[in-house]
Amino acid sequence: MEENVENFILDKFVEKVRFYIFIKMFIIKNFAYLLNILKNSELHKFYNNLKNYWGNEDTTSVKCTGESDQKICYLGKTLENIVSNWDSICSLLDKNNDKCCCYLTYWLYGLIVKINPSYFRLNDIYNMLDNFFKKIKCPSSTNEICTKIYAKIFNTKVLENKKVLYDFAEYYNDLQNLLREENSANRDKNCEYIKKFFQLYRTMQLHQHLKLTKHYCLEIKHFKEKFNDDVLSSLEQKCPGKGIKSLFNAANVTEHSSGKQFKNTAEKIIEPLKNKEDIKNTILKYLPSNTIYEEFDKTDDLNDYKEGCKKTFKPENGKDKDDITDFCEKFTRNMKKKIYITPSDGKNPKNRCSYFTHWTYENIRKIFPTLNDTKKNNWEEEKYLHDYFTNHESIKDKYNSNVSEKKTFCEYLSYIYKLYEKHIWKCCTYFYKGNSWNLCPKHFECDGKYNPFKLLSTLKCENEIISESEENAYDTLMIDREVVLKSQIIPCNSLICDPFYKFAMVPLAFLGLSSVFFLFYKVNISIV
Q1: Where are the transmembrane segments (predicted)?
Q2: Residues 430 and 518 both lie in one domain
Q3: Domain for residue 132, yes or no?
């Protein structure tokens, strides 16, 4: 799912500006000029040296089993050669081994993008790289940005973005020569070239904020360290009117405006419900979703699956596996007969198995009580949210004025509200104008009508709900609110927007025109 959303965002933000086409065309047209500028940079020297290990005769002479695996076969030989010559390779840099490992990692990412392997072959490459990094003693668990950089990423577009942004930041000190062009047309073109990288940075920052990927944080940190206020101000002077500094600031708006609140809210631990049985018997038992779960739990027609499940789950260490085999039989039956596709899910193909998924997780939690607590809690929270949203109307109808039931309803809705407050930061992205994005469609709804606070208010529950206005709470979730509001104010930060000057300009214009007419009048009299 992450990769699908990732591609959607890239289509929406990056494809419009044709980032890669622009970069490649610029490099082709200005290859000699760029090469002359970058030839003395450490990164260029390092990459150029590694190319010798990739395309030499020793590498290409290796016999490979299949033409499709030829490049991967060459990669294996290349890595062997690099291991043998690592000390001499790293000595080219006036840096420590960590920096060498960093440069090497980005070079390998570029090579993977060039090879463009299948998912399974890419997994083989990463297994190969694990052994490779151990041999050259490249650490991967410290806090240094360049020694923590290696990660197994299966989306080659993400790899390409990481390498492009990192390389640009490393090259920038040398690329500043592009801005010293005396020809204004060339300088303008070079500014547009540099601006594209800031657009990429903004897109990557957005991906990171929306939790579409977790793999950009190091490149973002590296980019921000490179482009401090002094560098940005200098760049703004050399490229006036390009809005490069504004792009950089806009990319950081969500981080500064809601990052702290997100961390405090989304990562907090919610205490489990205390009266689960009362809530189940009073509320959940009578909801439409319970009928579906009961269908999954039926013990009918299980004989055909008993033998297979008993063979698969044999008693282990004297422990009884009846719970596992029972679950296996039901799970297999539900899959074979497609009971997992419920009518309500069928309306939304992306959500067709949501009930079955949550039923499965719930059974796993019961069978394996020692399972990771964080994972179990997340499954439980997601199931409660899923059932709340899918049964929202039924919950409203079920409530009556009975005092004992009201107390149970309030306890249930208070718990749901806490989950809602926690997960909305991770699942929903709102815009000042337009529809919201839902990143967790399997268990969350971003439409404000589902907000449990409204039901709590209707039932007049006594709870510890925050007093902040719910309208203002949604404002903090809008990633573009501050930018849009500022853009609406900035155009009026000028002479013509002041009411005094609006009125003053009318008589001044009249006096100016009168002076011109009087001048023409005097000239005509003189001629006569």
Answers
A1: 500-521
A2: no
A3: no
Residue 312: Cβ within 10 Å count: 12
**Stretch 225-254: mean pLDDT:** 82
Question: For the segment 417-427, what is each residue's pLDDT rounded down to a tens digit?
Answer: 889 988 887 78
Half-sphere exposure of 160 (CA within 13 A, CB side): 13
Q: CA 27, CA 66: separation in Å to the nearest integer?
A: 34
pLDDT digits (tens, 9 = 90+) for 406-416: 888 888 998 99
What integer pLDDT is reported at residue 402 of this predicted model?
A: 55
Q: Evaluate whether residue 451 is within a structural domain.
A: yes
Query: Do 494 and 414 share a domain, yes or no?
Result: no
Question: In angstroms, what CA-CA distances link 129 with 78, 123, 125, 155?
Answer: 11, 10, 6, 17
Interacting residues of 229 by C-beta distance below 8 A, sequence separation 6+: none
User: Which one has a higher pLDDT value, 254 or 421?
Assistant: 421
Kindly state whether residues 379 and 459 are assigned to the same domain: yes
3-state secondary structure of 54: helix
The alpha carbon of residue 119 and the mean position of all alpha carbons in its chain are separated, in whole angstroms, by 21
- pLDDT, residue 314, reads 66
- Cβ pair 247, 199 in contact under 8 A: yes
d(CA 482, CA 258) in angstroms, rounded, equals: 11
Please tell me the number of Cα atoms within 13 Å of 372 on its side-chain side.
5
504 and 432 together in one domain: no
C-alpha 207/C-alpha 209 separation (Å) is 6
The verdict on residue 343 lying in a domain is yes
Q: What is the mean pLDDT of residues 436-452?
A: 85
Q: Does this model's pTM top 0.70?
A: no
- Confidence check: pLDDT of 388 > 90: yes
Q: At residue 342, what is the residue type? A: T
Give CA–CA dist 222/319, Å, rounded.
52
In a domain, 156, yes or no: no
Same domain, 350 and 434: yes
What's the mean pLDDT in 339-360? 67
Instruction: Name which of 250, 259, 269 is nearest 425 in CA terms.
Output: 259
Domain that holds residue 18: 1-35
DSSP, collapsed to helix, strand or coil, labels residue 319 as strand
Average pLDDT for 97-126: 86
Looking at the structure, tell me whether residues 429 and 451 fall in a common domain. Answer: yes
What pLDDT is recorded for position 266? 47
409 and 518 in a single domain? The answer is: no
Cβ within 8 Å of residue 164, ≥6 positions away: 23, 197, 200
What is the tally of structural domains in the chain? 3
